[in-house]
Amino acid sequence: TVITEQCPLWMATPDQCPLPDPYWAFYWPGGQALTRFILDNGSQFRDKSVLDFGCGCGASTIAAVTAGARTVFCNDIDNYALLATAINCRRNNVPMSTIEFSNENFLLSERKITPIPDAILLGDMFYDTDFAGDIFRLLRRLQLDKPEMDIFVGDPDRHPLNEEVHRKRIGVQFERELLIDYPLPGYVTREHYGFSSAKVYRLLFV
């Protein structure tokens, strides 16, 4: 359940779309890279507890379950994203017994994420500097509480993740370990401001 180049909704205007702001319906480049990385490196996720933060269409969730994750916690503030994730899991014959769903906004909620997962997945979440700052501060708190937690990010190198001026403005310091760089197909490059590849990083907050 995603909108592809062959779908009429690909070029639809907001008034032509039956659902509000269906960002979850597009398979964004960072999510594609992160999903491919999980499938190619399943041993890093096997028997782990995983949080798919901003799960969107659920592709990374499907990959994590397929890789043998012990539990996957799908989180998105859009209920349609959670519904799409559940539908896509069923369409791909992914067992639902290890998956939990939540629409809680952990950037605003006073409730902590407990238990802290072994790994967090974030695809295409750093499209805005202020929003990225909120996410970085949440990730830093979680990693301080559980230093061995892995943070995997799929992104085509948007400004908050890549440029030092944005990171200084945010005021959160972290190191990036580049794990892999995937080339993007032409139609994805055209739709995403000329980004020609999507990278997967491991983040370590300092």
From TrEMBL:
<dbReference type="InterPro" id="IPR050078">
    <property type="entry name" value="Ribosomal_L11_MeTrfase_PrmA"/>
</dbReference>
<comment type="similarity">
    <text>Belongs to the methyltransferase superfamily. ETFBKMT family.</text>
</comment>
<dbReference type="InterPro" id="IPR029063">
    <property type="entry name" value="SAM-dependent_MTases_sf"/>
</dbReference>
<keyword id="KW-0808">Transferase</keyword>
<dbReference type="GO" id="GO:0032259">
    <property type="term" value="P:methylation"/>
</dbReference>
<protein>
    <recommendedName>
        <fullName>ETFB lysine methyltransferase</fullName>
    </recommendedName>
</protein>
<keyword id="KW-0489">Methyltransferase</keyword>
<dbReference type="Pfam" id="PF06325">
    <property type="entry name" value="PrmA"/>
</dbReference>
<dbReference type="GO" id="GO:0005759">
    <property type="term" value="C:mitochondrial matrix"/>
</dbReference>
<dbReference type="GO" id="GO:0016279">
    <property type="term" value="F:protein-lysine N-methyltransferase activity"/>
</dbReference>
